[in-house]
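Subject: for your reference before the review

Hello V.,

The reviewers asked for a structural picture of the protein, and I figured it would be easier to keep everything in one thread rather than splitting it across files. Below is the amino acid sequence we used in the manuscript, unchanged from the supplementary table.
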Amino acid sequence: MPRSSARAQMLAMLSHDLRDPLHTIQMAAGALERTAGETQQRIGARIRTSSGRMERLVAHMLDFSRIHGGRGMGVRPVAGDLVSLLSDLVDEIRVAHPGSTVVLVTPPRAPLRFDADRLAQAIGNLIGNARHHGDPLRPVTVSLQLQAQAGALIEVRNPSPPLTPAVQAHLFQAFQQRAVGAPQRGAHQGLGLGLFIAQQIAAEHGGSLAYRHDDPDVVFALLLPG
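And here is what came back from the structure prediction:
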């Protein structure tokens, strides 16, 4: 077996085996938050947050092993409303990160074919990237525009300095930990797979993901076909 294939298989097995114990840790932390005293509740919240971050890293590694193994992300588009998907996703992020401000700008409806779970994952990665690397005192804006030739354009923007040419050259490659500017103080950079996975999801929809700097904002634009 080639070394790269063996490494991808090992990562997939390791990631899969870690999911159940992490889920158990999150359930125990949630129970601690609900039933313990104030100090224990804070500890439970910290455990839940940390284990949730670990669970997302594990999911990213599983996705990376799928892509690296040639199976792709398994995108299966069906008819749906993009506005409803974005509204639910932004609501979830606002609840999970009450210190962050996420502004959503959309038309009333946007019927299209897409894989709801995978597209939410891609946009969630873009919002997470913006939260970690942008100005923490300024909002992240998520906008949706319907295209004249059918399809839709989803943009995630936040105030941040432009990327250097060296960073842009490898922006959508795996394991690029410093994707956009300098991370916020105390932010966890993760494995650098978020943009790589988001681009793969866009491509499997027949669309694209692009970066630009629209002063003063860093903008990631995800284009979906009609």
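For the response letter, the relevant points are probably these. The beta strands are 78-81, 102-105, 111-114, 140-146, 152-159, 208-214, 217-224. The two ends are 41 Å apart (CA to CA).

Happy to draft the paragraph if you're swamped.

O.
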